[in-house]
Design brief:
Blueprint (H helix, E strand, L loop, with lengths): L10 E4 L15 H14 L3 E4 L27 H13 L3 E6 L9 H6 L13 E2 L20 E4 L4 E4 L14 H17 L3 E4 L41 H13 L5 E4 L5 H4 L13 E2 L3 H4 L4 H14 L7 E3 L8 H5 L1 H13 L3 E5 L19 H5 L42 H5 L5 H14 L1 H5 L1 E7 L3 E8 L2 E8 L5 E4 L9 E4 L11 E4 L4 E4 L1
Parallel strand pairs: 1-2, 1-11, 2-3, 3-7, 7-8, 8-9, 10-11
Antiparallel strand pairs: 4-6, 5-6, 12-13, 13-14, 14-18, 15-17, 16-18
Helix pairs in contact: 1-2, 4-5, 10-13
């Protein structure tokens, strides 16, 4: 039996507004992505996940979908997408789209019908409830973007549910006709040749049928987003969602080797349920976001990694993420030197890693002037650090005006050091962050123990995290110094004969008999 392509693969997330503008409007598009696909093949990734490209009013920048089977004119056409997909496949790259099943746009024809009257055939395609006895919202659920998760419709005298913006009404997955229509969306794109989907907020898709109040969060404190005032016990992670995921999986499996990834922010023990069971498998990869919030501490990381490995179901394949379009970038969280160590961690753990565009350059979060803020999260709850614009800024390709992203002012500003932190400059610099990523990806591809081998803990202390990757007779030691001071690692006997293969610094440290002294901020691979 051959191994599924995504086991051992590396995914690369593209935020389409910010990757490459081909028509000089300051916004990235599909022809721009197509033109840059050879770059991704050169970098050494295996698949691209493209954030939403569907027609949208852009209240939440594409996560408010008005047509699930089209392409927004800002990004191009269906023909442009077909050309992108064909070119990617020519280059050996897979393509994943972003499926947004929890909610649509309030301008989707389905919702226009649903809100037209209480008797419309599509009324039950969305979640409608009568007001509370006092005329207010049906319960205390809070939108992830702040404020009540309910919007009153005066024309029909009911509230509709929206887990995010009021412009993003929640779909009712308990309605069999809605469910069938959304499953047909998957088939539409699979029929076009798409290799898989990242499923947006999968754990949000089903709500408790009785809509009880969510319990208050005892850990809430001032300065947190308003959504944290309650625990989302009844508005997320309902048991019926697993049957939906199993149906999606069955559809995907019917097309051969397709990949489904679920966006799920849950504790590990609950995350594991989204793998499904032998009888009803769920998504192939429930996204594992632990590295995004984990303390940058060797002992804590060792505990986290081992607990996750032990929690995986029998055939469950792990995955790891350092950043995405919603969360602060690694270079901001760890600093430039440790971001290199973090890259080595991401690309040497067991499982399928996802790289976020720009992280291969070491781009940090970009300060957005108040007059240029576009993200509704920041506009609704300003000053709490929840805004996502800083991690969605344009890619810098060279030192030409606007970083080669566009010929005009981009929709968001570039990072301030774009003239030196760009693809062309880093491609030519021997010790650049880009070269580190390219070389790590090449070594991973050439080393079975790194691509698909087992993971075993070796050591963790105040400074050093060390682990083994093993496949058959091939054994690899990864040693990471998570501090800015030199640190000593005593080597297990089997590792004392290994040689340095690659490191985060120019001059690689080498074993000196029974141990290894790592320089500050040094990550090292020995084989």
């Amino acid at each position: 039996m051959t191994r599924a392509w995504w086991r051992g693969a590396v995914l690369y997330q593209i935020y389409p507004r910010s990757f490459q503008d081909s028509n000089s409007d300051g916004v990235g598009d599909l022809p721009g992505i197509t033109a840059r696909l050879p770059y991704l093949a050169e970098l050494g990734v295996d698949a691209v996940w493209i954030s939403p490209i569907f027609p949208s009013p852009m209240a939440d920048f594409g996560y408010d979908v008005a047509d699930y089977c089209g392409v927004d004119p800002r990004f191009g056409t269906l023909a442009d997408f077909d050309a992108l997909l064909a070119r990617a496949h020519e280059l050996g790259l897979k393509v994943l789209l972003d499926f947004v099943p929890n909610h649509s746009s309030d301008q989707h024809p389905w919702f226009v019908e649903s809100r037209a009257s209480r008797h419309n055939p599509k009324r039950d395609w969305y979640i409608w409830r009568d007001p509370a006895p006092d005329g207010g919202p049906p319960n205390n659920w809070i939108s992830d973007f702040g404020g009540p998760a309910w919007e009153y419709d005066a024309a029909t005298g009911q509230y509709y549910s929206h887990a995010f913006l009021k412009e993003q009404p929640d779909l009712n997955w308990r309605n069999p006709d809605l469910r069938a229509a959304m499953m047909d969306v998957l088939r539409f794109w699979f029929d076009r040749g798409v290799d898989g989907f990242r499923i947006d907020v999968l754990w949000h898709m089903v709500k408790h049928p009785d809509f009880p109040d969510n319990p208050p969060n005892p850990d809430y404190r001032k300065g947190m987003g308003e959504m944290w005032r309650v625990l989302q016990l009844h508005s997320t992670d309902q048991p019926e969602v697993h049957d939906i995921a199993a149906e999606m999986r069955a559809i995907a499996d019917g097309y051969g080797e397709r990949l489904l990834i679920g966006e799920i922010y849950l504790p590990v023990e609950r995350l594991m349920h989204y793998y499904g069971s032998a009888d009803a498998p769920g998504v192939h990869l429930p996204f594992n976001f632990q590295l995004i919030d984990a303390p940058w501490d060797a002992r804590a990381l060792a505990t986290l990694i081992e607990a996750y490995e032990l929690a995986l179901p029998g055939d469950g394949w792990p995955n790891w993420v350092l950043g995405n379009h919603d969360r602060p970038r690694a270079a901001t969280r760890f600093g430039a030197a440790q971001a290199r160590v973090a890259a080595m961690l991401l690309l040497t753990l067991r499982g399928t890693p996802t790289l976020y565009y720009g992280d291969e350059l070491g781009v940090a979060d970009v300060a957005i002037p108040p007059e240029r803020v576009t993200d509704p999260r920041e506009l609704r709850e300003p000053g709490l650090g929840l805004g996502r614009d800083p991690v969605r800024t344009p890619m810098a390709w060279n030192d030409e005006p606007h970083g080669g992203f566009s010929t005009m002012e981009p929709w968001l500003p570039l990072h301030p050091d774009w003239r030196t932190r760009n693809v062309a400059t880093q491609r030519g610099a021997a010790e650049s962050m880009w070269r580190l990523h390219r070389d790590l990806l090449a070594l991973r591809r050439a080393t079975p123990a790194l691509a698909t081998g087992d993971w075993h803990p070796v050591h963790a202390d105040d400074a050093v995290l060390a682990y083994e990757r093993r496949q058959g007779e091939q054994r690899v030691l990864v040693a990471l110094n998570l501090t800015n001071a030199a640190a000593r690692l005593e080597l297990p006997e089997w590792a004392r004969s290994l040689s340095p293969r690659m490191g985060t610094l120019a001059n690689l440290s080498a074993p000196d008999g029974e141990g290894l002294t790592l320089k500050p901020d040094e990550g090292l691979i020995l084989a």
